[in-house]
Design goal:
Length: 119
């Protein structure tokens, strides 16, 4: 079955950087559009960034554009999110998902990785 395992989160000061990873299995990773989404307790899912198969295209939410970079390694079934210039409002649980970008619901998610940015 589909498995998505996120890692790389942590506590970082404002202005700092983190790299999130997502190891995917159970499907042909290289054929799928992949996304990062995030969620703060009590709020809905927020789409952050997406990348097409074979890295053909990338897209970003306005709130992270210029600070975050999404990438993928299809040989290793791994999705990445490089986060720079982190802000306290970036604090959330981050999940990787497959499917079209900019949806508000992604039922297939891993356990997530927590990012906390202190001011």
């Amino acid at each position: 079955q589909v498995q998505l395992v996120e890692s790389g989160g942590g506590l970082v000061q404002s202005g700092g950087s983190l790299r999130l990873s997502c190891l995917a299995s159970g499907f042909r990773f290289k054929l799928h559009y992949m996304n990062w989404v995030r969620q703060v307790p009590g709020k809905g899912l927020e789409w952050v960034s997406g990348i097409g198969s074979e890295s053909a295209s990338t897209s970003y939410a306005e709130s992270v554009k210029g600070r975050f970079t999404i990438s993928r390694n299809d040989a290793e079934n791994t999705l990445y999110l490089h986060m720079n210039s982190l802000k306290p409002e970036d604090s959330a649980m981050y999940f990787c998902t497959r499917g079209p970008p900019q949806l508000t619901s992604y039922p297939e998610r891993g356990q997530g990785t927590q990012v906390t940015v202190s001011s």
